[in-house]
């Protein structure tokens, strides 16, 4: 029998608010252990939680970016279980009345066709502390770092409608891009600010039943998610084929061995409404305010870039793929650079150069002003593209403007005809065989002659004018 | 006597701050945080715990010039009245005021035992920050005193908004405070008191006599309906234990409190051993029931929440026609016998006081008319939520009727 997979994802995203969710402690879990703690996040006797307004705003923005229906009323529940990293004996989460329901993101399926994947809901919850296991002499000890306790998370829960590891990976990228765009979260699986658990079951192809699922955790990159799901689907099919029964349980992905390993029976603890955090009631005015600060999302941006800047679709997609990139592109264009030339130079020259210099658009010495200056000179034929590449390289080494660099290093393109004619004269007399070839009908050899002329001019000659002059002289 | 009533006496010199509470001594149960005072809530779970900060209500009293006297003894984590000495401190005139958490009616019952006044303010006007309780949605800081005037002054100082406490009701506070600030004159006013139709007054001869006295004094007594009144006890039991089970989750021995000194195999073992050494039998039974409703009977809990909402609706409706609701504090002959050992005992004792905890209404226990034994079985008055001052004014009036002063 042929089987198909049913996959649902639960994605935890750490919000980058200044403070934790229910207290004023800094939301910087990586600081020295137990430096960002207070009676609330340590849950000392008599402490009371108060939901941070900034966290609520950022969570709402993220939900809007995922096209969710924001709920006018939502509330916190207590997810009860005991673990040393959980100070309260319960986790404040939103099981019964989440902040947002529904929602979707669009991916391209394996044939390149657009496909919508739907969310069940998005809720807020607090993160737990971090356990550190060490030894004191020969005695194993466990330490708890509460810096992370109470930091804000949103959990994105999909409908069980993903079909393949490919779907899952594309979905994660789409969610990451959308949420990153809001500026509310970093969404890095590698550094743990985005974490993904996958629920996987299989069923006979074409069936609509939902069978017992297995939960897989511990994937630290989007690729691991794909690999773990692929492995798990195969494992479950093998199980069924050898007559075994799939049990509801949790497995861990082992990235070294490329297998999933059974961890424990899936635990569903009690979940009851929390009496201390007040219910969240959103007003229409507040929600409108949040909607107004939601930045333009990539899909709209692509349309606008095509319409306003005459980019072709793929260029627009590329320039919209990250918010910082799209902002850089627009700044450069607003400074007067030609749009498609700017897009293509950002994509093919600037981004690779940034990688080499270990800089990002946000912190790079190549500001939109300097980059636009470079493109404008290129556009006006003041420099040719070879020189432009050299100028770009120099932009990283000095704080001079591109115009100053061109002057100082003599990159200015030579377009003065009298000067160029001298070069052409020399090339024609030095390369008789190529000249004869051309005259005998081999038009391709003009390329060789132009190349020679560029060499003589040390790359500064305007290649278009050179070609024009040679053609005229040999006709 | 003194040393038995107080578990801790404030050694530092009395506060010199001048204010409305100057000269008034206040004893505080050990579950209400006072900076640098032992604050163990009378539980091994918090043995040797010393509060880091004042609770908001203590800070307000301190700033108003109150003399913070020391700690009285209480029942473990505020459930019931075992080992309670709050009332004794008033009876023996060792303190003007005792502050005591009221979760099922403890303040009012303690007052009944010691024949003083016991007041539970409206839920949501006094900050709970720094109060260590088990049932966040029902507990209020109650006030014991033999002077209604002092209770009124103390409540007025304690009430006020507090950002960290989300259960504070801002508009309710405004209403309550303006009530305290403008005391009303009752002379020309006609007072109506409601008796709950669903509760059989015949269960208490003394209560019937008290009502006769009130009627004769011109107070209109009428029947009002609190539908589902008979379920209130069960509703409190279900919701109270569920909340308590979660609230006690903090006592896990990881960050503070009692950790077992015995050897443990793993975390779970550490939890189980530490927690079984931490709690007494009543608290254990209470938490266990809560765990059961959380885990196995969640729908029962939801039903209880719905009935609670109906009870609030009924009581609000009743206050459209009456000023106060009257009930006995206890139906037992001897209020001093209220020392529960089991959860059933607890709810048997507090079956009439817990309604106000469920609905958040202010409620006060006042000594009733003298009976044949020379005792003064207490009468409980319940007021409209946030009309605390109005309730206290009526309590003053009724108290005078009972003592024959009017």
Summarize the structure in words:
The complex is a heterodimer of chains A (475) and B (406). Chain A is of the alpha+beta class and 475 residues long. Chain A has 15 helices and 17 strands. In chain A, strand 7 and strand 8 form a beta hairpin. In chain A, helix 5 packs across helix 6 (313-320), helix 6 packs across helix 8 (339-356) and helix 12 crosses helix 14 (445-456). The mean pLDDT of chain A is 91. Helix content of chain B is 38%, strand content 14%. Chain B has helices at residues 2-5, 56-63, 86-91, 106-114, 148-158, 170-181, 205-216, 232-247, 267-278, 281-295, 298-318, 343-349, 354-359, 388-403, and strands at residues 6-9, 25-28, 67-72, 97-102, 117-120, 140-145, 192-196, 220-224, 324-328, 363-367, 378-383. In chain B, strand 2, helix 2 and strand 3 form a beta-alpha-beta unit. By secondary structure, chain B is α/β, with parallel strands linked by helices. Chain B is built from 14 helices and 11 strands. The interface between A and B is large, with 32 and 41 residues.
């Amino acid at each position: 029998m042929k089987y198909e997979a049913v996959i649902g994802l639960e994605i935890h995203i750490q919000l980058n608010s200044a403070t934790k969710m229910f207290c004023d402690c800094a939301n910087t879990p990586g600081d020295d252990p137990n430096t960002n703690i207070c009676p609330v996040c340590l849950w000392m006797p008599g402490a009371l939680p108060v939901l941070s307004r900034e966290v609520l705003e950022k969570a709402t923005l993220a939900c809007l970016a995922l096209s969710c229906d924001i709920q006018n009323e939502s509330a916190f529940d207590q997810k009860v279980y005991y673990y040393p990293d959980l100070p309260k004996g319960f986790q404040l989460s939103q099981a019964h009345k989440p902040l947002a329901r529904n929602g979707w993101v669009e991916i391209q399926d394996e044939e390149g066709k657009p496909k919508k994947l739907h969310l069940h809901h998005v809720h807020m919850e607090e993160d737990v502390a971090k356990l550190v296991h060490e030894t004191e002499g020969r005695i194993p000890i466990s330490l708890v770092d509460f810096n992370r306790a109470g930091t804000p998370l949103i959990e994105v829960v999909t409908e069980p409608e993903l079909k393949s590891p490919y779907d899952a990976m594309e979905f994660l990228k789409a969610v990451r891009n959308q949420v990153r765009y809001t500026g509310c979260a970093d969404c890095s699986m590698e550094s743990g600010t985005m974490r993904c658990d996958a629920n996987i079951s299989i069923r006979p192809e074409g069936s609509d039943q939902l069978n017992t699922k297995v939960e897989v955790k511990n994937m630290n990159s989007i690729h691991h998610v794909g690999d773990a799901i692929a492995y798990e689907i195969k494992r479950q099919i093998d199980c069924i084929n050898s007559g075994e029964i799939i049990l509801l349980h949790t497995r861990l992905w082992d990235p070294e061995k490329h297998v999933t390993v059974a961890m424990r029976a899936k635990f569903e603890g009690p979940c009851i409404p929390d009496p201390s955090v007040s219910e969240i009631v959103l007003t229409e005015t507040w929600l409108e305010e949040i909607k107004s600060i939601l930045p333009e999302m990539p899909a709209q941006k692509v349309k606008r870039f095509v319409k306003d800047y005459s980019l072709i679709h793929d260029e627009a997609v590329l320039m919209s793929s990250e918010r910082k990139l799209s902002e850089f592109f627009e700044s450069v264009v607003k400074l007067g650079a030609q749009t498609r030339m700017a897009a293509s130079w950002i994509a093919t020259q600037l981004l690779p150069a940034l990688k080499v210099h270990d800089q990002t658009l946000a912190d790079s010495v190549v500001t939109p002003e300097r980059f636009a200056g470079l493109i404008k000179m290129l556009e006006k034929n003041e420099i040719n593209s070879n020189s432009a590449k050299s100028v770009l390289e120099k932009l990283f080494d000095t704080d001079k403007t591109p115009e100053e660099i061109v002057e100082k290093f003599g990159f200015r393109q030579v377009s003065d005809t009298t000067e160029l004619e001298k070069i052409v004269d020399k090339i024609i007399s030095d390369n008789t065989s190529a000249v004869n070839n051309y005259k005998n009908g081999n038009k391709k050899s003009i390329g060789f002659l132009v190349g020679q002329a560029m060499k003589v001019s040390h790359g500064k000659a305007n290649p278009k004018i050179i070609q024009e002059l040679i053609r005229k002289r040999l006709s | 006597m003194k040393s038995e009533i107080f578990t801790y006496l404030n050694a530092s010199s009395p506060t010199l701050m001048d204010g409305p509470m100057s000269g008034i001594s206040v004893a505080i149960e050990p579950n209400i945080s006072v900076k640098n005072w032992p604050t163990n809530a009378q539980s091994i779970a918090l043995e040797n715990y010393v509060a880091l900060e004042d609770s908001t209500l203590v800070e307000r009293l301190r700033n108003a010039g109150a003399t913070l006297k020391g700690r009285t003894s209480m029942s473990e984590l505020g459930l019931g009245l075992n080992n309670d000495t709050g009332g004794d401190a008033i009876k023996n005139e060792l303190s003007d005021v005792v502050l005591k958490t009221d979760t099922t009616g403890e303040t009012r019952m303690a007052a009944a035992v010691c024949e003083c006044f016991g007041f539970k303010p409206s839920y949501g006007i006094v900050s709970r920050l720094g109060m260590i309780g088990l049932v966040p949605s029902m507990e209020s800081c109650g006030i014991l005193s033999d002077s209604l005037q002092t209770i009124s002054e103390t409540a007025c100082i304690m009430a006020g908004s507090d950002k960290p406490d989300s259960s504070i009701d801002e508009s309710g506070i405004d209403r309550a405070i303006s009530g305290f600030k403008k005391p009303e004159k009752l002379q020309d006013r006609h007072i109506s008191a409601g008796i709950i139709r669903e509760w059989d007054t015949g269960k208490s001869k003394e209560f019937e006599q008290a009502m006769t006295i009130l009627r004769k004094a011109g107070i209109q007594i009428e029947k009002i309906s609190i539908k589902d009144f008979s379920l209130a006890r069960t509703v409190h039991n279900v919701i109270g234990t569920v909340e308590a089970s979660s609230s006690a989750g903090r006592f896990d021995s990881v960050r503070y409190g009692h950790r077992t000194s015995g050897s443990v195999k793993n975390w779970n073992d550490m939890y189980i051993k530490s927690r079984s050494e931490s709690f007494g039998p009543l608290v254990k039974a209470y938490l266990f029931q809560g765990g059961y409703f959380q885990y196995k009977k969640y729908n029962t809990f939801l039903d209880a929440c719905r009935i609670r909402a109906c009870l609030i609706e009924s009581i609000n409706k009743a206050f459209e026609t009456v000023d106060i609701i009257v009930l006995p504090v206890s139906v037992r002959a001897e209020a001093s016998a209220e020392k529960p050992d089991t959860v059933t005992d607890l709810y048997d004792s507090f079956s009439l006081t817990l309604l106000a905890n469920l609905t958040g209404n202010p409620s006060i226990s006042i000594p009733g008319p003298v009976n044949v034994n020379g005792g003064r079985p207490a009468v409980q008055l319940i007021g409209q939520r946030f009309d605390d001052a109005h309730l206290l004014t009526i309590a003053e009036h009724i108290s005078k009727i009972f003592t024959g002063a009017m």
